[in-house]
Amino acid sequence: MGPDPAELEDLYSTPHGCASCEDQLFLTDELVLVQVVYTNALPDRIECYDIDNGEGGFTYEPYFVHLDCWENFMEELDELTEHTPPTPDLLSIYDCSQCKSGIRAWETSCLVTPGELRRSPRAPEGVQGIHFDNCLGEPQLICISCITRMNDEVFEMWEDFSHNGECSEGSHIRCWRGNACHDNGCPCPKEQAC
């Protein structure tokens, strides 16, 4: 007689759910951690920083998403952006893994890290916690234009998503780069954008 399935489910269950399908996440499920971050270049690496809301929390809540659900999002985003050429930028520090456009230092972008939820090896006070383990590949950075498009047209993860209060179109064209919103038709009022 094998282990009781209900006991196994309890053993592998976590308090987290997939942001897309809303199914409960279990230990060792293949998933991605999706975080909105600022990036900066250091001499030997790219650093990512959480965007703080000023009250000790996140401006944009991080999410866990099943890897299959995330891959479906990216396929839909590929279809939406297939005829959009990359936006080259001499000041960029990194290229978007999705559209290959340049990402500048301190621009809002999305860090997507593949991995699994695992039990912590240590158990302070007799209770094992759960942690995210980046064990399924390299993290990817996605530019604000692609993430805005995904958020608007594929699956909304965050309300009022922007770099600096601009509208979605302003995020797509990166209106904060040299007042481009006024040259490229961004409908944002000047005091709101840039």
Topology:
Elements: H1 5-12, E1 13-17, E2 24-26, E3 31-42, E4 45-50, E5 63-66, H2 67-81, E6 92-95, E7 102-104, E8 108-119, E9 130-133, E10 140-143, H3 144-153, H4 168-173, H5 180-183
Antiparallel strand pairs: 1-2, 3-4, 3-5, 3-8, 6-7, 8-9, 8-10
Helix pairs in contact: 2-3
Quick tags:
194 residues, six-stranded antiparallel sheet, 5 helices
Task: Outline the structure in words.
The chain has 194 residues and is α+β, with helices and mostly antiparallel strands. The chain folds into 2 domains: 5-161, no CATH class; 163-194, no CATH class. Helices cover 22% and strands 29% of the residues. The chain has helices spanning 5-12, 67-81, 144-153, 168-173, 180-183, and strands at 13-17, 24-26, 31-42, 45-50, 63-66, 92-95, 102-104, 108-119, 130-133, 140-143. Strands 3, 4, 5, 8, 9 and 10 form a 6-stranded antiparallel β-sheet that branches. A hairpin with a 6-residue loop joins strand 1 and strand 2. The mean pLDDT is 86.
